[in-house]
Specification:
49% of the residues lie in helices and 10% in strands. By secondary structure, it is an alpha/beta fold. It binds FE(4)-NI(1)-S(5) CLUSTER with Oxygen and iron/sulfur cluster (SF4). The site of FE(4)-NI(1)-S(5) CLUSTER with Oxygen has 15 residues, from α14, α20 and α24.
């Protein structure tokens, strides 16, 4: 083995800013990149899903000698149970997010949250109409009350009728499939609880039954996140195109720098608002002002709505602290590495936790209160200003790397852009481009970072490969963060990386919207945080309706090249259930059962039309995704020709 190969690779990133920090650090301060190396080799039983710790007799590991757990559970039961619990963890996290927003809006209607208002009454009306409510002559508050009653019901009801947020956002064909397969969730919370019970020791041993419960839980996840997106828009506004910047270079040595990290806009929106009001206090401390910036999905939320720059994504979350110029990192829930506290210990940075159920020992804790949101936000900002005074000038070292970003593409914003070409039927602009062969389809890039692959490399490779092959790209979560940081989310990237068809399509949209858009359109269209995968799926549904088909026939795939979290497992599972070919670039922990793996890869396709593609090599992944899109375009063409020739009323339902 060469010297080079033996050297532990604790700089596994292609982000030039992250690399600079890691190179200057030389392992002095431990980061996730070091801990990944220390963690090798990782346990193969866990990796393949055949380790069971569900009861206290465990852990039971399936080996050649022991082909069943102590209770007699086969590998397929163990793998399926672990998978369902992983989906349930993801669905619970998204439910936590959605429930918090519902609660805040209910409190707002009671007059107990003076800092929150209905920012987007037009969205409220759109959501109400989609839910089947009559909006005529109703005040906003009355309408919101009715919308919230449905949201609460979708979260909690015990009866079996369809959840409104599911049946009003998917095609009729999907809803029929969901009903036929008996995977319709009663409600978000009920399904999560069911899944925990079903996977308890000695309950369900049938892997197929378990996987079906997993699909049902994934649909509960979809409902929870769709509610979160819709209510966030009502509360804070539906995103519109906005220009900003991304990567560590957004940290300004002369400002009080505050990173908001986590997921829920309830907190980050307030911090951003309070920061705008408190410039004088920062100036009194010797700073030029206050600069907010985002990490992970709450960063995506405030980028989309407020143009707040994105400082980094999941894997590199410790690194902004190591510039010596980050004064506070304010966190709420999910994807927050406990390690940020240990790194902050070496600097003046204050880690401020805000949620009663998400604390890190040794951090500052300012408990968030819906009732006193702005007051709490001001308290947080004062802690950051105090920290600014404790900076050590000699330790400040900020990589001068940042890229321009154009974000803010809610579905409404996309349709508005398409409407400049076809005001009567905006979505037809996209479906026509696929019909004519100008575009090969649409891909949703979603998901996290994961050190099992080179940080940001799989994301960037898949984006560039698909763009060169004329795929229209929408994105959410930390892959959107990669695109933003690496300069793939602006107009220059269209010139550099788009194939001729995609370039012509985007330029046609630019020309039609000249005078309306302040910036030209980007290569990758940022649709928001991970809960906003709901927006990306709404786009799929709209395309299916325009073509008069069900979603498994739409040339629309999902890809999570660096998936990491349980939320990503839940999202990937509903993408498949709702009909999408779904690439995952980090093989999940199910390969220990050929049966469960086969369901994910093949049987899912036969039953639902969607299926998983495991491919860790990003270049091969591009080929696999393109093949999935091409197969659908080809079939769609054949089925439409057949419809014309045989004069049938609808296009063949099969896939
Ligand atoms: O919800 S993409 S690492 S930040 S889980 Fe987490 Fe994954 Fe990032 Fe957002 Ni989504
Ligand atoms: Fe072992 Fe069965 Fe207990 Fe799992 S549930 S730990 S397989 S005895």
């Amino acid at each position: 083995m060469s010297e080079e190969k033996k050297k532990p690779d604790n700089k596994r990133t292609v982000d030039p800013a992250a690399l600079q920090v890691l190179e200057r650090n030389e392992g002095k301060i431990e980061t996730a990149y070091d801990r990944y190396v220390n963690m090798q080799p990782q346990c193969n039983y866990g990796r393949t899903g055949i380790c069971c710790r569900i009861c206290l007799q465990g852990p039971c590991r399936i080996t050649k000698k022991a082909s069943k757990g102590i209770c007699g559970a086969h590998s397929y039961t163990i793998v399926a149970r672990n998978l369902v619990r992983s989906i349930t963890g993801g669905a619970s996290a998204h439910a936590d997010h959605g429930r918090h927003i519902i609660y805040t809006l209910l409190e707002m209607l009671e007059g107990r949250t003076p800092d929150y208002t209905i920012e987007d009454p037009a969205k409220l009306r759109r959501v109400a109409q989609r839910l089947g409510l009559s909006v005529e002559g109703k005040e906003d508050r009355e309408l919101l009350q009715e919308v919230l009653a449905i949201a609460v019901s979708d979260f909690t009801k015990l009866s079996g009728e369809p959840c409104r947020w599911l049946e009003t956002t998917v095609t009729e064909g999907r809803m029929n499939k969901i009903t036929d397969c008996n995977i319709q969730p009663r409600s978000v919370h009920t399904t999560i609880a069911e899944s925990m019970g079903q996977t308890h020791m000695g309950v369900d041993a049938d892997p197929v039954n378990l996987v079906f419960q997993g699909l049902k839980t994934a649909l509960a996840d979809y409902i929870g996140m769709h509610i979160a997106t819709d209510l966030s828009d009502i509360l804070f506004g539906t995103p519109k195109p906005v220009t900003s910047e991304a990567n560590l270079g957004v940290i300004d040595p002369e400002m009080v720098n505050i990173a908001v990290h986590g997921h829920n806009p309830l907190l980050s929106e307030m911090v951003v608002r309070a920061a705008r009001e408190m410039k004088a206090e920062a100036e009194a401390a010797g700073a030029k002002g206050i600069k907010c910036m985002g990490i992970c999905c709450t960063g995506n939320e405030v980028l989309m709505r407020q143009g707040v720059p994105l400082v980094t994504n999941f894997l590199s979350q410790e690194l902004p602290i190591m510039t010596g110029a980050l004064d506070a990192m304010v966190v709420d829930v999910q994807c927050i590495m406990p390690a940020i506290r240990a790194v902050a210990e070496c600097y003046h940075t204050r880690i401020i936790t805000t949620m009663p159920h998400s604390k890190i020992p040794g951090s500052y804790h300012v408990e968030f209160s819906e009732e006193r949101a702005m007051e709490k936000a001001r308290e947080i900002i004062r802690l950051a200003i105090d920290a600014f005074k404790e900076r050590v000038p000699g330790r400040i070292d900020i990589p001068q790397v940042k890229n321009k970003v154009t974000a803010g593409f809610s579905l409404e914003a996309l349709l508005d852009i398409f409407a400049a070409v076809n005001p009567d039927n905006p979505i037809k602009v996209l479906t026509d481009a696929i019909d004519s062969g100008q575009l090969r389809g649409v891909v949703l890039l979603a998901g996290c970072n994961n050190l099992r692959v080179l940080h940001d490399h799989s994301h960037a490779t898949v984006i560039k490969g698909l763009a060169a092959n004329n795929v229209f790209l929408v994105s959410t979560g930390c892959v959107a963060g990669t695109a933003a940081k690496l300069g793939l989310m602006n107009a220059e990237a269209v010139e550099k990386y788009a194939g001729e068809g995609l370039k012509a399509f985007i330029n046609m949209l630019n020309e039609a919207n000249a005078g309306k858009l302040t910036e030209k359109l980007p290569l990758v269209f940022h649709m928001g945080s991970c809960v906003d995968n709901s927006r990306a799926y709404d786009l799929n549904t709209l395309m299916a309706k325009e073509w008069g088909i069900d979603t498994p026939k739409v040339p629309y795939a999902a890809s999570a090249p660096e998936a990491m979290s349980e939320k990503a497992v839940a999202i990937g599972t509903w993408c498949v259930t709702l009909g999408m070919p779904t690439h995952v670039g980090v093989t999940p922990e199910i390969t220990g059962s050929a049966l469960v793996d086969g369901i994910a890869l093949q049987i899912a396709h036969d039953v639902y039309g969607g299926y998983f593609i495991w491919e860790e090599d990003p270049e091969k992944a591009v080929e696999a995704i393109l093949a999935a899109l091409d197969e659908r375009t080809w079939k769609l063409r054949v089925h439409r020709l057949a419809k014309e020739r045989y004069e049938t009323a609808t296009i063949s339902a099969g896939w």
